[in-house]
Amino acid sequence: MANAGKSQTEQPDLVAAETAMSHAQPQGDGGERHQAANDAVETLTEEIFYPALRKSIDDEELLDEAEVEHASAKRLIAEILSMSPQDHLFDAKVKVLGEYVMRHVQEEEQEIFPEARKSEVDLDALGVKLSKRKAELMKKAA
């Protein structure tokens, strides 16, 4: 996330949608590692990335909306993970999550990341901080 120019396939929120969809099916250890990585990305975004931007970006509304979107996606992911693929509304929830996340990623790429690049945030230092915290979270999850 420190590199605000990532492609859509590298976006953490897209990973979240893919994770929810992949967890809809029985998983082995690989699924647990994928979930741990997704949880780490959510934590990084909420603990480090958005707070760093709040200090340097004047558009509070933009970041407020992003935080609400993250919380809403997390709730929907939790619902999906608690369901079976045969449950009523399962497919609809997975589809809505995918669409929702794609829209959120697009907003990040078109609005948040350009603001981050224009801000006084040291994206390289932020990237180092994110990488260190991710390593801690992944080690703890192992």
Which descriptors apply to this entry?
142 residues; mainly alpha
What does this structure look like?
By secondary structure, the chain is an all-alpha fold. The protein has one domain. The protein starts with 11 loop residues before the first helix and ends with a helix. The N terminus is likely disordered.
In this structure, how is the largest beta sheet organized? none
Q: What is the number of strand segments?
A: 0
Structural class: mainly alpha
Low-confidence stretches: 1-11, 23-29
State the order of secondary-structure elements, H for helix, E for strand. HHHHH
Our count of domains comes out at 1
Work out the strand percent.
Answer: under 5%
Distance between the termini: 22 Å
- Contiguous helical run count: 5
Shape type: flat
Whole-number average pLDDT?
78
Radius of gyration: 15 Å
Q: Assign a percent range to the helix content.
A: over 70%
Question: What topology emerges from the helices and strands here?
Answer:
Elements: H1 12-22, H2 29-54, H3 60-81, H4 90-118, H5 123-141
Helix pairs in contact: 1-2, 1-3, 1-4, 2-3, 2-5, 3-4
Please sum up the structure shown.
The chain has five helices and no strands.
